[in-house]
Specification:
By secondary structure, the chain is an all-alpha fold. It contains 12 helices and 2 strands. The longest helix has 32 residues, at 299-330. The radius of gyration is 20 Å and the shape is globular.
Length: 338
């Protein structure tokens, strides 16, 4: 029995790493490409486990969101230790630090990892392999292997990145226990509580979704608004609003950008005319904004980011063309010819 039954898990492993890091951090820090093997183990295996767990328990997108938060705590809290370190990445200077926790960094990474590490890659793979979107990708042996690799990835972050970026730092035991408790609680909610409450299928309503281009522009704008509210441009030293907005207010404004955006997307998805083309524009707006945010970091970031942006747009256009061709092949003859 093979570990992977098809190409979908390999696609998800690659897309998760690309969306999370290679179209973001690697723009300003090209050295990130050298960490590709570790990143694929940590991101790819971790998100595969999340996706498999949700599918096998009958969960949906809300379960993916909760497990995405658990994943972010595991990576940033237990692996990188950036949630509590006063030195790592300079994150303590990005905004609010209280009770030994970098709250601004935490909120920003929840948004980035839930969307870019989990939801967007899984959504793209669902478009590529629609017949398998509700099926497990992995055998039981494959799932166990992916889980072990995810654990290896977290330890890799701890001993290869955290140990070099902030040598000697250890997250206090009290905060480690809180992180573990949060991970367990989020897992139970996502895999036990939510699947029992989930409706059998998505109910479409008599409303129309906006044009795909509007979806793309809205997702591009709100993604940029979220990032620039919490993070210095290009992860440098300059915050867009400087000292004009208090750190606590930044957290509030970012939350009232991200949460309504998520609810808006859920509303759009319930429209009867929501289509694969809408999804491509949605993901495209998020990805393009995510990469563009990093480009002001330096001339190098601008030069690296420009071809990455071009590649994103090109590949999304190719995906849209592929989906149209697939729809034409699978459509009834009378639909194709009329």
């Amino acid at each position: 029995m093979t570990l992977f039954r098809n190409r979908a898990p390999w696609a998800l492993t690659l897309l998760t790493t690309v969306c999370a890091e290679l179209t973001f951090t690697a723009v300003a820090v090209p050295f990130t490409w050298l960490l590709l093997p570790l990143l694929m183990v940590m991101y790819g295996a971790g998100v595969l486990v999340i996706r498999e767990a949700v599918v096998r328990t009958g969960g949906g997108w809300p379960s993916l969101v909760l497990l995405g938060v658990a994943y972010q705590i595991t990576e940033d809290g237990l692996g990188l230790q950036a949630l509590t370190s006063p030195e790592m990445y300079g994150a303590a200077d990005w905004g609010l630090r209280a009770l030994g926790v970098n709250w601004t960094y935490w909120e920003s990474q929840i948004g980035v990892h839930v969307v870019l590490s989990v939801l967007v890659p899984i959504g793209l793979v669902n478009l590529l392999f629609p017949a398998q979107r509700a099926r497990p990708y992995l055998s039981k042996r494959g799932l166990l292997g992916a889980a072990l690799l995810a654990v290896v990835g977290v330890f890799g972050l701890r001993f290869l990145i955290s140990a070099t970026q902030d040598p000697g730092y250890q997250t206090p035991w009290g905060q480690t226990v809180v992180f573990l408790a949060l991970i367990v609680a989020l897992g139970l909610l996502a895999l036990v509580v939510l699947p029992r409450r989930r409706a059998t299928g998505r109910r479409q309503v008599a409303r129309t979704a906006p044009r795909p281009g509007v979806v793309g522009l809205v997702s591009l704008y709100l993604t940029m608004a979220f990032l620039t509210t919490l993070l210095p441009l290009g992860l440098g030293s300059t915050l867009l609003f400087g000292d004009l907005m208090p750190p606590v207010l930044r957290l509030v404004f970012a939350a009232i950008t991200a949460v309504p955006f998520g609810l808006l997307v859920r509303r759009w998805q319930a429209a009867a005319d929501w289509s694969e083309r809408h999804q491509i524009w949605l993901f495209g707006g998020i990805l393009v904004s995510h990469t563009a945010f990093m480009m002001p970091a330096s001339l190098t970031a601008a030069l690296v980011g420009a071809p990455i942006l071009a590649a994103e747009v090109y590949l999304l256009i190719r995906l849209a063309r592929h989906l149209r061709q697939r729809a034409a092949v699978t459509a009834p003859m009378w639909t194709v010819n009329r």
